[in-house]
TrEMBL record:
InterPro entries associated with the record: GH, GH_1_N_CS, Glyco_hydro_1, Glyco_hydro_1_AS, Glyco_hydro_1_beta-glucosidase
Residues the entry annotates as binding substrate: 19, 120, 164, 296, 419, 426-427
Lineage: Bacteria, Bacillati, Actinomycetota, Actinomycetes, Kitasatosporales
Name of the protein this chain belongs to: Beta-glucosidase
Cellular component terms per the entry's GO annotation: cytosol
Catalytic residue list: 165, 372
SUPFAM superfamilies: (Trans)glycosidases
Species whose genome carries this gene: Streptomyces himastatinicus ATCC 53653
The reaction(s) this protein catalyses: Hydrolysis of terminal, non-reducing beta-D-glucosyl residues with release of beta-D-glucose
GO-annotated biological processes: cellulose catabolic process
Location of the region described as Disordered in the Swiss-Prot/TrEMBL record: 307-345
Cross-referenced Gene3D superfamilies: Glycosidases (3.20.20.80)
NCBIfam families: BGL
Length: 468
């Protein structure tokens, strides 16, 4: 049976500045924390960096022609803070803004809606040098940056996202250290989470002040689908603990204006949360026009065990000697059953339905977008230079069918963004993992649409999901 999506459903693909742009030292850009991290020996697989990436900075017109060929109605991209405001302070570099002006103009000329993310993990290194996200000043600097970009592009961009996956910025960047800036602390991730929340609120205020009334302001979260190994009370408590750290640390203040009391109790040995100041929560609970949901795979947890601390380091977010779960380090993580992608992540579309229905309940009246969903596979060209990826097609088909079911069940889901448009720099995995619908031959930078790209192009053209 063919499934039809609602008229006006937004079909798109996504990418992030550091993963694709390259041109790391051009036109006034200065290092971000990911430049520093990737140039630190041992931090990124193979010593890979984003110095060149897929050279989108110079090839964006070619890439937009590809997007048009794939019938994309929208392109979700991020702005490099270091390219626009190199030190994280002071006036903008117009050459940096000009790149994004040109990108947006080209998208609009091609009939593609620009969907702009202000922050996708690439903090200017100078702000990290003064403490980074654990410090309140970083949130204040972010609001200034948001205003700069809004003033430059607000007349042409309707869809704005403040932050992408702040959980990763806080807990992988400052807890387990598998992401930039690579710090391994217990208090810093909690402080960072709050100041990222505050940055969202302050940034949303700055956007509202600068943007036309039609602009839509959102945040993209990567909420975890946390399932207990058994129904034993101890396993259910482990589920509660991880849900608090993965999900409610953001949804609590964003949607209800309060941090969960159980999260505060779970982390009482680490902090009294005195870094939350009067008025912060009201700022964070800024009305959302939309909520972005990023989903890849569920998590399976059980009660603390003797080897729980070790198990927590293998929770799907990269191996580390340090846990990204402050106060709940001994919760054990288990591999969920089923087929796996090249990331080792289980393919389970039921988790997407669970998230869409959860946020339908928790954020009533707020439209939802799937702002990232996709899979990495070991894609290789055949003898004719074509790239066939039937596993990705099946992954996308299953998740889109689940999204359609969520709409039927009452979710106000407005769009879907495939992660990702092209193969690119996959953070700590370097160029070893390919998420793209378009294959990139890194030595030549040649782009080759995979079979999944052609399949997705037809879905985007018709708004219909064909039978398997």
């Amino acid at each position: 049976m063919t499934l039809s999506f609602p008229p006006g459903f937004l079909w798109g693909a996504a990418a992030a500045a550091y993963q694709i742009e390259g041109a790391a030292q051009e036109d006034g850009r200065t290092p971000s924390i990911w430049d520093t991290f990737s140039h630190t020996p041992g931090k990124v697989l193979g010593g890979d960096t984003g110095d060149v990436a897929v050279d989108h900075y110079h090839r964006f017109r070619e890439d937009i022609r590809l997007m048009a060929d794939l019938n994309l109605a929208a392109y979700r991209f991020s702005v490099s803070w270091s390219r626009v405001q190199p030190t994280g302070r002071g006036p903008a570099v117009q050459r940096g803004l000009d790149f994004y002006r040109g990108l947006v103009d080209e998208l609009l000329s091609a009939g593609i809606q620009p969907v702009l993310t202000l922050y996708h993990w690439d903090l200017p290194q100078e702000l990290e040098n003064t403490g980074g996200w654990p410090e309140r000043e970083t949130a204040e600097r972010y609001a200034e940056y948001a205003g700069i970009v809004a003033e430059a592009l607000g007349d042409r961009v309707e869809y704005w996202t403040t932050l992408n996956e702040p959980w990763c910025s806080a807990f992988l960047g400052y807890g387990s250290g598998v992401h930039a800036p690579g710090r391994t602390e217990r208090l810093a991730p909690l402080r960072a989470a709050h100041h990222l929340n505050l940055a969202h609120g302050l940034g949303a205020q700055a956007l509202r002040a600068a943007l036309p009334a039609r602009a839509q302001i959102a945040i993209s979260l990567n909420p975890a689908v946390v399932r207990p190994l058994t129904q034993d009370p101890a396993d259910l408590d482990a589920q509660r603990r991880i849900d608090a750290l993965a999900n409610r640390v953001f949804s609590g203040p964003l949607l209800r204006g309060a941090y969960p009391s159980d999260l505060i109790e779970d982390t009482a040995a680490i902090t009294d949360w005195s870094f939350v100041r009067d008025g912060d929560l009201a700022v964070i609970k800024h009305p959302l026009d939309a909520l972005g949901i990023n989903y890849y795979t569920p998590s399976l947890v059980s009660a603390a065990t003797d080897n729980g601390a070790r198990a927590a380091r293998h929770d799907g977010h990269g191996a580390s000697a340090h846990s990204p779960w402050p106060g709940s380090e001994r919760v054990a993580f288990h591999q969920t059953p089923g087929d796996r992608t090249e990331m080792g992540w289980t393919v389970d579309p039921t988790g997407l339905h669970e998230l869409l229905m959860r946020y339908t309940r928790e954020a009533p009246g707020v439209p939802l977008y799937i702002t990232e969903n996709g899979a990495a596979y070991d894609d290789k060209p055949d003898a004719d230079g074509q790239v066939h990826d039937p596993e990705r097609i099946e992954y996308l088909r299953a998740h889109l069918a689940t999204a359609h079911r969520a709409i039927a069940d009452g979710a106000d889901l407005r769009g879907y963004f495939l992660w990702s448009l092209m193969d690119n720099f996959e953070w700590a995995y370097g160029y070893s993992k390919r998420f793209g619908a378009v294959y990139v031959d890194y030595p030549t930078q040649a782009r080759v649409p995979k079979s999944s790209a052609r399949w997705y192009a037809e879905v985007a053209r018709t708004g219909e999901l064909p039978e398997a």
